[in-house]
Write a structure and sequence with these properties.
Blueprint lengths: L1 H14 L13 E2 L2 H4 L2 E11 L5 H15 L4 E10 L3 E11 L2
Parallel strand pairs: 1-3
Antiparallel strand pairs: 2-4, 3-4
Length: 99
């Protein structure tokens, strides 16, 4: 009886850790090195996701959210890493690109 309750509680906690994109972040485009040359750098973005499901996906969503919050409309990925024990990280440039 206790085991199913613990499993359900763990699932609820993990689901609560999922990162969702903001409305503005949904419009942020990931660009290539050639495309980024036509853009202005807004800020360097670094995000580490240690807990929860889909660590790489949640790290990228958080980076896109931060890009949008900083006024960027594009994101250039400098590096990513993912490790079961350490989590996932994304480093990139929040960019503002012309229309």
């Amino acid at each position: 009886m206790l085991k199913p309750i613990l499993i359900c509680a763990a699932m609820v906690l993990l689901a609560g850790c999922a990162t969702t994109l903001t409305g503005a972040a949904e419009k942020v485009q990931i660009v290539t090195a050639a495309q980024k040359e036509k853009c202005q750098i807004v800020k360097l973005v670094t995000f580490n996701q240690r807990l929860g499901p889909d660590k790489p996906g949640n790290a990228m969503k958080a980076a896109l959210n931060e890009t949008a919050a900083a006024g960027g409309n594009a994101f250039y990925v400098v590096s990513t890493s993912s490790d079961w024990a350490e989590g996932a990280s994304v480093v990139g440039e929040a960019l503002r690109c012309g229309s």
